[in-house]
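Hi P.,

Sorry for the delay on this. The queue was packed all week, but I finally got your sequence through. Input first:
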Amino acid sequence: MGRAARTLLSAIVTLWAIATGTFLLMEHAPGGPESGERRLPPEVEAANLVRLGLADAVTGPCAEGPGECTRVERRPMLRRYVAMLGAIATFDLGFTYTSRGERTVRENLSEGLPVSAAVGGLALLFALLAGVPLGLYAASRGGGRADRLLAALATAGVSVPAIVLGPLLLYLFAIRLRLFPVGGLDSPASLVLPSATLGLILASVLQRMTRAGAAGFLEGPVAKALAARGLPRARLLGVHALRHAAIPMLGYLPPAVAALLTGSVVIETVFDLPGIARHLIGAAVNRDHPMVMGVVLAYSTLLVALTTASELLLPVVDPRLRGPARTGDEG
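Then the structure:
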């Protein structure tokens, strides 16, 4: 089996395991989609189960006397599990429970994911353009005043959570200075502050990682030998030091980027954005199993894809991870 086939099989097995785990967690969570967190009258719960496709109305002889009666039989968990796998295989998770048959999971995802992805994509772009160059500059000034200042700023950026930084930027640039909209998604300018909030935090992390990786290389014998041969400082930093700094970042970025592109609950709530993360919270509270499964699978698929890409890129960045070169036939 080739490497591509093994990678695809591993991704499918991973997604199946995530879907199965999510299904079992939802099945054993307190409450249910027919009642939510509080119990309803039995006849109401029974009607809800039938409406949601979780039970069947069966007509049969009445136990109390002659005639026929209709009773509700909940579908076995195995049958619901197989139906869930079939829905995932056809990329159609059906209607959301909370919409009462008016909206599908696909419609919610298609509306929310572009907003979350736009915010996350801009945040990632800002973080890469700011964090990586600043980290390289700090490494080139190791121990100096600029290095200590950038280290302090990065520490502050990592320490401040989004739930604090977001309202602070909102108050300063939207309410006081009135440079950006207060909330909602009326124009592209509405994406600036939420993207900046997430981007500043991620840029601080990338700056610290870049500085650590680049500084470790610059202090080593290879960098000193290259400098002694007359290699320009810019090439030493921008190519060789950056390559060493990219190794730990390739391990960190896949889950971080997946989380960015699939939305932040805090950011979408603070800035009143119609992203996908808010659908997840509402679905979890209301036991909307199809919507929860849709969001979880969207995040998991993106995470698996990014992790796979990272694994394929690591040998390109770090030659030590490549297989041994064949110099001839053995024997």
